Amino acid sequence: MASLDILSQLSSLEMLSASQGDKATAFTSLLRSIISNVPAQELRQSLTAFIDTVLSDSVGIVTSRPVLSECVTAISGIESTDIKKVVYVYTLEKLRPKIISFEEQDCNIRESLADIYEAEEENGEAAKVLQGIQLNPHQRQISDEFRLKVYIRIMRNLLEDDEAITASDYLNRATLLIHTCPDATVNLQFQMCQARILDSKRDFLNACSKYHQLSFSPVVDEADRMQCLSAAMTCAILAGAGPLRSRSLATLYKDDRSPQLQHDYSLLEKMYLDRLLTQKEVDEFAARLRPHQVARLSDGTTVLTKAVIEHNLLGASKLYNNIGVEELGVLLGLSPEKAEEYAARMIEQGRLSGQIDQIDRLIYFDSTASTGGASAERVVGRQLRKWDENIGALAQAVENITSMLQNDYPVCGESENLQIITTPLD
Fold first, then answer.
1. Which positions ≥6 away from 372 have C-beta within 8 Å?
2. Fewer CB within 10 A of the terminal residue: the chain, N end or C end?
3. What does the alpha-carbon distance between residue 368 and residue 218 come to, in Å, rounded to a whole number?
C-alpha cells in the first residue's frame, strides 16, 4: 500500500478545482517526485495508486490523457524491470473499459511492455501484448507504415515462439501493405518473416528461394547473408525429391559462396550429384536442424527422413535400370511394402520416371527421362546414344530385308537396280 503522504497528495489533487492544465502539471510534478523519492519497495504501490487516481471518474479525460502519457515515459526510466512490468500490466487492465478514450496511451504502454518481454525472451507474451494494439482506432489517425511495422513485430515474436500458423495470418495482412512502404529495412524484415513462415510451414522450395534472394541483399550484413545462404541450402536438402528441388540444388551448388559452408555443402553436393547418402551423414546434418525441421509427420517419419528416402530412391534410379522391391527396401532401409509405396507416390507425382510390375515385384526406371540436376547432361548423352542405336537397328533391318529380297528375286548383272513392286491388297 502507498504511504499516507502520497495518498493524501493524490486525494488533494483529485479534488483540486484548478484548471485542467494546472491540474495536469500538478499531477506530473507529483509523478516525478514519486519516482525520485519513494523507496523501491514502496514504488510499485505508489505508482498503482497514482494510476488509480489519474483514471478515476473525478479526473477529466483532458487531464488524464497527458498525465498518463507522461507517466508511460517516466516509468520507462525506472531501473527495476519487475516494477515497470507490473505497473504497465496494471495500467492496461485499468484502461480496458476506457480503451476508446486512451487509444494512444494504450498503444505506447503495449509497445513498452513488449520491449520488456522481448528483452526477457518471452516472445509469446510480447506477441499477445502487441496483438492488443488498436490498429483501426476511433480517436486518432495512424499510417499504413505503422500498421505494417506492428504486423511484422508480431510475426517475429510469434516465429520465435514457433507459432507459424498464427504468424501466417499477420503475413497475409502485411502483404496488403508492404507495397506502400519505401523503407528498405522494413521490407527486409518482411521478406525474412515470409521466408521463416514458409520454412516453418515446411514449404521448403519456396523458403529456399526466399532465403537465397535475401543472401544477395546489400542491406544485410555479410554474416547474416551467409546465414541466409545456409538456411537456403538446408531447405533445399529437406525439400521433396524431384525436378523442382534439383533446380534449386543446381542453383545453390553453382553459387561461388556455397563451398564456404562446408557442413551444408558436402551434403548438398552429394544430393546434386545424385549420390546415395549414408546414415552417418544424415545424423550429422539432423543435429543442426531446428525443431520444426525434425518434427514427426503423420506417417511417423520426420521431414529429413522422408527427404533422404526420396533422394536415395531417385539416386537408385540413376544406378539401376530395374530393381526388385525387396532389394530396394534393403537399400532404403525400409520394408518392401513401404519402399514400393514411396516409389509409387513419386511416380504418380511425376517426380520419378518408371513403372512398377507388381506381379514380378520389380520396379523399372526410365533412364531416358530427366529429373534435372547434374544428371540432365548425362541424360542428354544417353538419349543421343539411344537415338544412334535406333538408327543403326533400323539400317540393319533394312539391310536384312534387302538381302532376303535379293535371295528370293535374284537380279541379272551387278549393274541392274533392284526394283520392288508392291501391289495393293484386295
1. 243, 244, 246, 247, 250
2. C
3. 42
Distance (Å) of CA 191 to CA 76, 194, 198, 220: 31, 5, 11, 12
Q: Which amino acid is at 161?
A: D
Alpha helices in 242-374 (DSSP H): 243-253, 262-272, 279-286, 303-319, 325-332, 336-348
Look at phi and psi of residue 96 and say left if phi exceeds 0, alpha if psi is from -120 to 50, else beta.
Answer: alpha
CA 229-346-300 angle, to 5 degrees, is 75
Cβ–Cβ under 8 Å, residues 134 and 107: yes
Q: How far is CA 367 from each of CA 31, 220, 292, rounded to the nearest angstrom?
A: 81, 43, 36
Mean pLDDT, 10 residues at a time, the chain of 426 residues = 72 73 84 84 87 85 88 88 92 90 91 94 94 86 92 94 90 93 91 93 92 92 92 92 88 92 88 85 86 78 86 86 90 88 89 87 74 49 73 90 84 48 46
State the Cα angle at 76 between 70 and 81, rounded to 5°. 145
Instruction: Cell numbers for 207, please give them.
Output: 523458403
